[in-house]
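pasting for the record
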Amino acid sequence: MATTQQASSGNVGRTVAIGAATGVVAGLLANFLRKAAVQAPTVMAGRWDKALAAEHAAALKIFDLLEKTKDEDTARRAFLLMQLKHAISKHAFQEENVVYAMMRDQGLTEAADHLNHEHGYVKQYFFDLTEMAKDDPAWLPKLKEFRVLIESHMREEEQDLFPKLRDQLSETQNKHITAAMNKEGLKLA
């Protein structure tokens, strides 16, 4: 009798271990697929500067949705602000860890430092908007002020600094930046 119970107990233990391992593998796979789906639009855009411009456009669409909210739409504001914060944080991580670093390596140090400095103000706006009550009548004007900063930052990157960097780099270097940027983006996706 004891042998049958021991065998049964061992089978249960193995079944639990297999089930747990399967759950871990499924969870890791699901997380990887989620990350790949979040990073896919950036990867699909191709070249690093086009990918960052696509991310800029996506962020502006979230701003559009936020600007359409009313003071009583507090849950929607909180949710969209969270989405915007995630999108811009991932985007900034890619820029700071790859593009701005390459700008410095290519002699565009002052410009890279200026852009990085502006990212500090982006974080300040996120802090302020997160801390403010979402039904505060000053919330939407603060968001619009934030958008002005973001749009100015995006224009400077897309129309001046990124083309300047892209043109300074060889085709191999541009491909390397694209791959490195996508790798960094996948980390936070």
